[in-house]
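Researcher: Next entry in the queue.
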Amino acid sequence: MLRNKIGMILVIALVLLIAGCSDDMELDLNEWADRYGFEKDQVFSIDIGDFGFPYVSAKINDKDISMMFDTGNMVGFVVSFDVAEQLDLTKTGEYIERDASGNIRGNFAIFEPEEVFVFGKSITTEIREIFTDSFEGIIPPSLLLNKRFTIDYSNEFIGVSESRFPKSIEEKESFQLIANNEFPHLNPMPVIEGVINGQKVLIQLDTGKSRTVVDEKLIEFLNLQSNERGYEIQSLKLGSFEFSITNARKGNFSGISRGYPEPIMLGLGSDIISQFVFTVDYPNKEVIISQ
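Model: Structure for this entry, 291 residues:
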């Protein structure tokens, strides 16, 4: 009887300890800003919505729009066909949209520049039509080329600043932001070097992917096993951070790999990015993952 009581007390203590540890990472806006080196007015709420993507509140011509923040979007500001109709945007031309493999998705409209209010500022920018109606719109990382942004799915905040990432955070890993010398328009895309099952590869960090995607050539080279949910990666190492993936989709990155020193072999999606705090410092050409 006494042994059972002692066991129950230990279980309760363990539960309370775990709950306490979880609470430590649940930060309000002021705490989060202080921790990650932002002024309070540089921090914005995000919603983790459809497909596990981060969504940011924006306005186009004073219309409220929920826009997905997509670090894999190299097209620019895009809106759905429905939103374009609601805003009565003026078409000025068309562009060809391609997927990661370089295949053409279709021809879509380019609209006259409009005023967009996002991340606390108004800008005038060209708007393009999105290839799917799953989202109202998408914000590109090219908007922040002279900034550092930090995004935290767990606490649902994104910070935007010209300041450096705080040195006080010890649990972090820094990576060189690998540039594309042939196609500079791809440089906003965060690409770093990581290790997959012991093999060094280039990795794209893409908040616009719901699931991580592995290139078909790497599947063959590493003989990755599949199951009913996708392909299995036993070990993905980003510095001292290590992950396992059981449901990676097969893909082809040949289209966006042109101009990089090596082919991109993995598109790390929101399923994994949501497990850490993700920072891109464009002025200092650095990507940081942290706790």
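Model: The longest helix spans residues 2-24.
Researcher: Noted, moving on.
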